[in-house]
Amino acid sequence: MIHAQGIALYQIKSPLGEDWIAQCAFTEEGRLQYLTFVKMHEWKPLNGEGENPQTADTLPSPKLSEIGLSAAGTLAPANGWYEALLPAGHPMQPFYAKSEVRLVYRGQGELFPKLGVMPADDEDLVQWAWIRGT
């Protein structure tokens, strides 16, 4: 389980043995704002549209196509959850594709963390994909 900035992640195993993450976002008053499920390696919003419900006091989240990928060692372009990606041929890609450390929350302007890729020079190959805003 992970808690960060009004969001909690819970790992869940389905009856078929699949790994899922339940992502809960809370208001400042502690009320559940939205609940989504992430199947490991796949983004599956519950509402089917991939957008947060909007209220008068929230701004629309940027669309995934507007953000794109961010290079290792750069600053997050928007608030939200990011997934670390390695090139398909990298020997550590299968490990990180299943690891929880590939998911991080970053506020706009925060530095992306080092993933711990070996050899250390390969850290430059990491790209961060924005998957969901808050």
Shape: globular
Strand adjacency order, main sheet: 1-2-3-4-5
Q: Overall mean pLDDT score?
A: 75
Q: How widely separated are the two ends?
A: 18 Å
Task: Determine the fraction of residues in helical runs and give it as a percent range.
Answer: under 10%
How much beta, percentage-wise? 35-45%
Order of helices and strands: EEEEEHEEHEE
What class would the helix/strand composition place it in? Answer: mainly beta
Please give the radius of gyration in angstroms: 15 Å
Tell me about the biggest sheet?
A: 5 strands, antiparallel
Domains (count):
1
Number of helices: 2
What are the salient characteristics of this protein?
globular; 4-stranded antiparallel β-sheet; 7% helix; 2 helices; 134 residues; single chain; mainly beta; 5-stranded antiparallel β-sheet
Describe it.
- By secondary structure, the chain is mostly beta strands.
- It has one domain.
- It is 7% helix and 36% strand.
- The strands form two sheets. Strands 1-2-3-4-5 form a five-stranded antiparallel sheet, with no helix packed on it. A four-stranded antiparallel sheet has the order 6-9-7-8.
- Strand 3 and strand 4 form a beta hairpin.
- The longest helix is centred in the last third of the chain and has 6 residues.
- The chain is globular, with a radius of gyration of 15 Å.
